Give the backbone structure.
Amino acid sequence: MGLLDKFFGSKVAYPPLPAGNEALLKLDAVKAPLEELAHKVHDHLEVVPAEHEAFVFLGKPPMNFGMAWIHDGKVTSLNDLAKEHHLSQVEIGELMGRLGEAYQHASETPRYSAEFGGKQMVVIPSMGLEREMHQIMANTLH
């Protein structure tokens, strides 16, 4: 992406996620809540597929983003996590910092596009990022 693209917000066109790809199979397992999220959120979405769940970056990671976690057949927002686990503002800030770092660690991972709920999303099929996200969530919530 060129310098002018960064200033003017051009979107990168990623190739479609190939049919039969393991990431697509993982996303199909969480299709209903992912489509629900797509309908609710008008921001840019980047999805990290995982086994029976998905992590979704909302906005412009790694600096200006939100987070949703699709697990157990539902979407959990960062606010939901904070309330449920009594996280302080400092803990939320630290969590967001770690999630942003994890996103940056996967910056060289190929990205693809896929449509769910009528919305184009970026898919990041990275086992390394998936493991790092699990570790961050486990350390924060337990």
